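Researcher: We plan to redesign the surface later, but first we want a full-length starting point. Tokens attached.
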């Protein structure tokens, strides 16, 4: 390493140093920081989370060496062999046609799984956590001529990382700035009297920006009604103003906006609506019939996929942060080593808790995300009856069953409402019911305008009939089960708690804990209606709280076969 090495290094410093300084300058400008307050290139920034699998100690990155991944307590030992070349092929999946969320199917629940979107993970860690702050790991290249090429490369990587972090930070600032309009109690957001006076005027001339700022003002008024009301307009007038602006800005019809505002406080409602516009993280479920999560992770990393274990509650899930290959077309995908499956879609199966050698019905099964998960949990023993009423959707169900090596399944195509006369005495039944899809608006924005009260009533009626049938298929005397799980990707009470409450009155079942370690309790009071208090054992999941699709899961234990008497059946 002589003069050439030095000048090469100096060149790199000039290159990356300039980039970093430029980015810092932009951030300082955005933050209006100057003098001593201004950020320096060494200030540790928060950065986008990198994969656990990716965050390996540098010294262990030699081919053949083993690295113990620093977390995850699944049954795998999570030891990775480091031989991670980025060789990959770009293959178009023959299954895409049957699994694409944007297939010709029109119902949103038909697109719930295999969503194919990429994560915009908000998980972050500090640069300090990575030893990048306080000069740790830094090398003065100009002074230290003994720096070898390897360290130089590391330095280069650190500088690139810094630069990325700064750009990421800049992006975050921009995002925060645009969100600031909705921030309550912000010093810049103090309401002026004339703003309040003009609030209710000139509706048709208002631009999007005007409406956004009016949302912000009205939110402040409603959140501190006693002190901020104008003395002229009632709370409900402010509320309808807010609803009309939210419906305009976010593109919803009046019906759905009113429903959401009944369910949440105004501030939470906006949070829910904003989160519903954002894509959820891309998640895959390891097919444990064919591989282990550790092996799958290793194989995908070697193809340039940046992944992490999903959450503690899942032994099979992996979050995909980014990928150089189409995740629905890797050799592992084609070989059935995983299913692209929303994390919310794991939950009903966890609640169902299938046991080996049981007889289980999946009443509305296509395209088979949950069926194949049930079979995997049963280690291909017993029988899984996989039913779906739509013949064209059976194709994707069968294709997935084959691809994932599921061998304990009988596929049928009946209206679930009639199944009880064909199939009885089952240990467990899953009803992942057809619904309005109000929990999965990020997959299908058309839900915002296409749902009306009549549709929801119609859904609710079918859901009640399906659930009664599901209960009738189940055997109260099952030695191992007698369990029914009801789930939807809707957040509406009418499709969830109202359905369960109805069935509690017509069959001998009780609500039991889903045994899912997170989620919000089910709703027991709504619009003057009182549901059975046990409904708080049901679980609700929301995009703005759990960073997953809006979802509802309720687990029932069958106490006695037969129907309750003295109840009128009106769906
Ligand atoms: C939410 S999707 C099911 C998703 C599936 N459980 C999975 O995890 O892949 C609802 C399914 O219900 C089916 N369906 C609609 N009406 C039905 C009925 N009356 N009986 C049985 N299935 C029905 C639809 O064809 C659709 O595939």
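Model: Full-length starting sequence:
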């Amino acid at each position: 390493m002589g003069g050439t090495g030095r000048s090469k290094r100096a060149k790199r410093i000039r290159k990356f140093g300039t980039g970093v300084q430029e980015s810092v300058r932009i951030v300082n400008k955005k933050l209006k920081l100057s003098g001593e307050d201004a950020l320096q290139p060494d200030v540790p920034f928060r950065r986008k989370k990198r994969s656990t699998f990716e965050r390996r100690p540098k010294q262990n990155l030699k081919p053949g060496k083993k690295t113990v991944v620093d977390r995850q307590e699944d049954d795998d030992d999570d030891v990775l062999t480091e031989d991670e070349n980025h060789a990959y092929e770009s293959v178009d999946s023959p299954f895409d046609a049957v699994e694409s969320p944007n297939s010709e199917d029109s119902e949103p629940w038909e697109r719930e799984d295999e969503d194919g979107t990429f994560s915009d993970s908000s998980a972050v860690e500090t640069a300090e956590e990575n030893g990048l702050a306080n000069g740790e790991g830094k090398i003065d290249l100009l002074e230290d001529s003994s720096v070898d090429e390897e360290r130089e490369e590391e330095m280069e990587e650190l500088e690139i990382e810094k630069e990325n972090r700064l750009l990421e930070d800049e992006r975050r600032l921009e995002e925060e700035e645009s969100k600031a309009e909705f921030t309550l109690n912000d010093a810049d957001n103090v309401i002026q009297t004339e703003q309040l006076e003009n609030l209710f005027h000139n509706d048709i001339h208002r631009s999007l920006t005007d409406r956004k700022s009016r949302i912000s003002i009205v939110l402040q008024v409603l959140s501190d009604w006693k002190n901020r009301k104008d003395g002229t307009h009632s709370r409900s007038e402010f509320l309808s103003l807010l609803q009309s602006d939210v419906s305009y800005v976010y593109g919803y019809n009046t019906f759905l906006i009113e429903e959401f505002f009944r369910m949440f406080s105004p501030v939470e409602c906006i949070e829910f609506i904003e989160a519903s516009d954002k894509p959820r993280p891309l998640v895959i479920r390891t097919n444990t019939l064919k591989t282990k999560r550790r092996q799958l992770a290793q194989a995908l990393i070697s193809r340039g996929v940046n992944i992490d274990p999903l959450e503690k509650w899942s032994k099979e899930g992996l979050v995909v942060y980014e990928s150089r290959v189409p995740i629905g077309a890797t050799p592992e995908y084609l070989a059935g080593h995983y299913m692209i499956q929303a994390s919310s879609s794991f939950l009903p199966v966890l609640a169902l808790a299938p046991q080996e050698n049981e007889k289980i019905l999946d009443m509305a099964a296509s395209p088979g995300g949950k069926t194949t998960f049930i079979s995997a949990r049963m280690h291909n023993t017993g029988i899984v009856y996989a039913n779906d009423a739509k013949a064209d959707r059976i194709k994707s169900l069968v294709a997935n069953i084959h691809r994932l090596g599921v061998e304990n399944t009988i596929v049928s195509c009946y209206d679930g409402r009639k199944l009880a006369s064909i199939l009885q005495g089952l240990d467990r039944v899953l009803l992942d019911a057809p619904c309005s899809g109000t929990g999965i608006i990020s997959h299908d924005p058309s839900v915002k305008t296409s749902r009306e009260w009549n549709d929801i009533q119609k859904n609710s009626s079918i859901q009640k009939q399906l659930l009664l049938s599901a209960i009738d298929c189940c055997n109260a005397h099952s030695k191992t089960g007698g369990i029914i799980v009801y789930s939807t990707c809707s957040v509406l009470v009418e499709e969830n708690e109202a359905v369960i409450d109805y069935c509690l009155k017509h069959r001998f079942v009780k609500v039991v804990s889903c045994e899912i370690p997170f989620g919000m309790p089910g709703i027991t009071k709504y619009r003057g209606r009182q549901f059975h208090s046990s409904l708080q054992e049901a679980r609700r999941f929301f995009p703005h709280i759990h960073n997953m699709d809006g979802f509802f899961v309720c687990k029932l234990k069958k106490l006695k076969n037969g129907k309750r008497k003295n109840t009128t059946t009106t769906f």
